[in-house]
Amino acid sequence: MLFGETIAVALSALRANKLRSVLTMLGIVIGVAAVIAMIALGTGAQAAVKDRIAALGTTLLTINPGQQRGFGVAIADAQAKLIMDDAKALDERASALLAVQPEMNRSLQVQWGNKNANTSVVGTSANYLEVRKYALHSGRMFTSAEDEARQRVAVIGPTVATNMGLDTPDALLGESIRIRGIQFTVVGILESKGQGTPFGNPDDQILIPINTARFRVIGSDRLRSISVLAESEDKIPEAMADIQRVLRREHRLRQGRPDDFQIRSQADFLNTLGETTQVFTFLLSGIAAVSLLVGGIGIMNIMLVSVTERTREIGVRKALGATRRNILLQFLIEAVVLCCMGGVVGILLGASGATVMSRTAGWNTEVSPAAVGLAFAFSALVGVLFGVWPARRAAALDPIIALRYE
Questions:
Q1: What's the predicted TM-score (pTM) here?
Q2: Which residues in 110-132 are b (16+ Cβ under 10 Å) and which e?
Q3: Backbone dihedral region for residue 19 (phi beyond 0: left; psi -120 to 50: alpha; all else: beta)
């Protein structure tokens, strides 16, 4: 029997039992669809993190409070302080920095008329847009003079207006809003930074002058972080050394004592978040791969039943001259075709699911060609591995015994 004829016989056998073939494929379809959707979700999250960090600028350094220490050991649940004097010292004494931008924040209720929303209120300096690479959609940023005078002015992110149920954020420009019951005038609207991620939404915030936040809203000079700009990527190590020198002197840390603050560059964030999302992707893909194996076991089970049902047919084929190789190939091709068809349907279903998640839930998803190729190859491999045993069993049947089978 020719190879082409063997394939034709295998396909005709599948067409003769369409419903059983479709039900047999379901395990592979679900497994491949889950693998494609999970990898698309993980890849999309990694891409979103990279885009967001790139948008912040590659020369941005962030200083956060570290662990508070006493008698040489770390104190549990106690964080060291970063205060306004630290930011002032960096601005005055660090020579390798282009800009210093302190910020403090609090999650507060914001009210406009009968509409309200809970959002992050950030007290910061007037150079926030320059340091954090934000742009204005309309209006203006508050000035350093307004900051020094503790003026009640605010610049809002577009998501704040959306959360209040407004069609356009421009409706708030020039209007008075209340933050913690205190009246502020909206002087600017931020340009959207794009889609939010599980790590936060950059558009869901309100900027107010840091001195206004310190003395009128939050009532503390503790900072969440200090962001600084290095002169260039090559001078980041020099800038980090400069920051360390100034802050260690400001915090009066003796030689040999560890820093009570952390300096992170965007590359650190990128590596950490990239590793986290990669582990998350591998974990979900591993779980989805288990369902593929279960689908393969289902196919092997159905193929064994098929061999038993078609014993007489196998005997007739052998009596007419079919060799063991022809019979083995016929059943192996049936198993591989079932798995490959299930793989194709699963890829289409998984890609559709990723698109639906992106459009309805707003999650970042990205279906990569590598993931599609890997899922298809794995489904074909499952067909070979789980189709060999039933095929060998069919090929080993004695034609005389098979012809007598009822």
A1: 0.58
A2: bebeeeebebbbbbbbbbbbebb
A3: alpha
